[in-house]
Amino acid sequence: MKRGHMRVALLFAALLALGGCATRPVNPPITQAEPNSGYRLVTRQAHFKDPETLVVLAFSGGGTRAAAFSYGVLEYLNRTEIVRASGEKVRLIEAVGVITGVSGGSFTALAYGLYGDKLFAEYEQRFLKRDVQGEIIARFFSPAYWGDLWSSHWGRTEMAADLYDEILFNRATFGDLGKSKGPLVLASATDVSTGARVVFDQDVFDAMCSNLDAVRLSRAAAASSAVPVLLSPVTLNNYGGSCGYKSPVWLDVLSGPAGPPHVAARAKREMDERLALGDGVRRPYIHLVDGGVADNVAMRSVLTVLELMEALNRAGVSTRLDGVRRIVVIVVNSRSQPTTHWDEKEKPPGSFDLLLQATSVPIDHFSYESVERLKDTEARWQTVRRLRNSAAFKANTDPAVAAELKAPDVDVFTIDVSFGVLKDKAESEYLYNLPTAFVLPGEAVDRLRDAAGTILKESPEFQRLLKQVGAKVLPKDTLTGPAAQ
Asked: 160-173: per-residue pLDDT in tens?
């Protein structure tokens, strides 16, 4: 072997030896599950600004396309003022209580939860208009990372998580997120073994007897966006069965004779999936990939909560959301729909195109059904409310009739923010054809942000909300309250 080749070989071997021992971060165990502490809905409710109004944002997956589109919604809510009965003016974004996010949408959700108003001055340059994908690829081909990449305990997604920390999250953890006064942020991934949705929430981590507070936000974002094959799974240690975790009381209520099990089927199934995480002996490791595989519009958490509210209402059981009178769900769906010309040719599409279509079509159909189910819930609750207020119902005291006509006395607003509802069809087609990647031209980022505001402005359901809460939209680039300081 020539001396030059020998030096290259020795250098490569040295790099492997130096980096090959790299290990992934390990989520620590807890000795006792405490249902009233940690990062979860119970502890975050203390920060909700309006106990009667719950605003939920659901951010879909889709790389930078999703991150920019969901950010446009935050920008529009940030300049929408509500005038309270006291005369106080607050921004509608301050009423947001929960943000759910998957894949690209999880970055915007987690970053806003961490930084709050500060994000509006930094997010564009730190993430949206950055070639994040190019930086990941550059690291993959850099000899400095080859040794780590060869390690069985540290993969491509861990490398990406480190980059996310450097450019966006600054190694912040869910413990840091819990110290903020912002909304509850629920980023989710998919369990490779079962296909179940795994939410980065202490309720779920209790089942694994693990401390979410020590988990870095970058790992949650990396797991939520770990596209199978392209990126490696994120691995969590599972200590389930070692901390005295118990299923919630509502599960026993709904499973008993007084409960209406047919109403809470979704919630009970999700609880079964969570309880399956409790077997740390047989499943000491949980491997997570892109959350979009299980729920690409981040809607399952929302549907589960609404289903539980209805089921427990019918069972006569009080909940922490009983005081809520208005639930606003803004579904930000940035799915792509690239133009194809397959049907114009006799030759069918190739294997790669077929693979992409076979995975995306079921996800898109499930996403559509999720939104429609939310609208069905809204319509059903409104119908029940009208019937209970009718003269015929008030004249009928039959307990059986009263039992059937029970639903939470809550006004639900389903606001669909998706490319297909744009009136400008040329713009809609442009956005549909943007790639699912973590890099986009600056113009595309700006058009996505503008489109989000346009859709909200033209949404009849959003206008109904604004009229009900006495809100107005300020001129573009106008900030009020803390954001202006």
From this structure: 999 999 999 999 99
